Structures are given as C-alpha cells and as structure tokens.
Amino acid sequence: MGATIPDIIEAIHLEKTFGSIKAVDGISFAVKKGEVFGFLGPNGAGKTSTMKIIACVSPRTSGTLRVFGMDPDISPAEIKQRLGVVPQETNLDPDFTCYGNLFTYSRYFDIPPDAAQKKAEELLEFVQLSEKRDVTVEKLSGGMKRRLILARALVNNPDLLILDEPTIGLDPQARHLIWERLKLLQAQGNTIVLTTHYLDEAERLCDRLVIMDNGKILVEGSPADLVKKYVGNEIVEVEKTPDVLSCLEKNRIPFEITGDTVQIATESSRDVARVLFDHCSPHKVLTRPATLEDVFLKLAGRKLRE
C-alpha cells in the first residue's frame, strides 16, 4: 500500500463575513491532487469569496484552511508561488502586447529572462495565440483575452489553478478551446478549482463539484451521481394546460412547473409518455436525458438572482 496523497485544499467550517453578512457560512470541502473541482451557485452564493480566500487575496473570518498543507494566513507568499489564478474580470495590461503581458508577469516570479522568453512563446502556442504575439491587448477579441489570461496564469508552472468564470461571455468555439486546454492541463497533473455559471461546462469538466447557495454547500458529488440522486435518468416535458395538470394529478405523477412547461423527472420516460398520450391529450411531448442544470434548478431554485 502506497502512502496516501494529502489533499491539495482542505477546508473545515470555513467562514467569511462582511459586517452582518455571512458570504461563506461554515463550509467544509477537500480537493484532491489532479482533479477538477467545481463551485456552482447563483449570484451571491459565496463562490467568488471562497476563491479569494483560497487564493490568499481575502483572509477568512474563521474556520480551518490548508492549501498545499499550509495556512494562507501564515504562508501566503509560499502558496501564491504555486498558484495560477484566472480572475473573473479581464485585468491584462493594456499597454503591452500578448507576449509583453506574459514576459512582464513572469518577472514577478523571478524567472530569468531567457527562461521567461521561452515560457512566454510556449504559452502563446499552447493557447493558440502565437499569431497575435505582437498585438496589443485592446485589439484582441474577448475570447483571445480570456485565453491570454489563462496563459498568464500558467507562467509560474502552478500546481493549482483557480479559475473564476473562465469562459464568461465567450462564444461556443472559444469556450471549447479553453475546455480542451483545461483538460490537457489536468492530464499533465494540474489540480483545477473553478466556478462557473455554465452547467454544461461543469458537467463536462468537473470530477466533483459543490452547489452553493447563501454561503452554504447544498450538495457535493460527481455530476453524474448528483443527477442520478436528485433528478433521475430522464426528463419528460409537456406544455402546461389545465387538462394536462389535472390528468397528471389524477394519475399521481409528480411534476414541476417551469413557465409554460411541465417537467416530469423519471426513470422511464417511455412509461410517462404512454400515460400522457393515453389519458392526458397533450399537444407535444419531449423527452431528454436529465442534466446538471435540472439538479441546479431543483436545489437553488428557479428565481433569478441579480
């Protein structure tokens, strides 16, 4: 039996308060080496506050936190040396080119000029920006800027990547390119922690995730396990009419109403569809696999948070 590999991050009863507001309310979680771990939740759930505590940007109010076995309150410099951070906002230096942003940033880590130059070129190729090497930041598209921020986060060969909404506002092609790069980084041994509002992104990338709301963790698990536990295998959707609603109630089929649609979570969409067609006179019935989005909406609610 080999030695157990310690967790990269371990949090126990972690809290962060701002005045009377508990942004992070006593959460506990652990992130293992080499996994992609996600934080999901509506706006104001506490995801970004948690990221900032892990990244040694914002001190915790109480609780225990270890990153690489170190306390961020005691050893922030040592932890930051091993971190790569992609913030939610675009904070590249507008006065520099793509290459200039990477080369200048590498100097903060005391990387020798020759090595910094080589690393910058490698990273531009990695995020497919070599052709934009000498272009200034302001002339880049949104997707190119996000890719450059990812490249910058890799300058110091980090052991842990922290990504806050890494593909926010990007078109599908740009999102898929970043997903490919992140999967490649994981294959190379990186540990990745991310927040995202894109449920398909979390489903595709995360080995495990938590769903947060009001500063607390509601659930934790792999995307597939959470879907199976909280929703089931399939969803049947039918338009909401008085006849359909009374028919479902009469046949004791549990359902949820979402706008003008009725959703039925089930292990067998065929059986539910048969009941609908035989007894409920629906205009149209749609069946689909259950997704993480169904879990999210069930647990965090359907009301829009601003």
Write a structural description:
This protein has two domains: 9-223, Rossmann fold (3-Layer(aba) Sandwich), CATH 3.40.50; 233-289, ACT domain (Alpha-Beta Plaits). The protein contains eleven helices and 13 strands. The chain has helices at 47-54, 76-80, 98-107, 113-126, 142-153, 172-187, 199-205, 223-230, 242-250, 269-280, 292-300; strands at residues 9-18, 21-31, 36-40, 62-67, 83-86, 160-164, 191-195, 208-213, 216-221, 234-239, 256-258, 261-266, 285-289. The strands form three sheets. Strands 5-6-7-3-8-9 form a six-stranded mixed β-sheet, with helices on both faces. A four-stranded antiparallel β-sheet has the order 11-12-10-13, with helices on one face. The chain is globular. The model has no long low-confidence stretch (mean pLDDT 89).
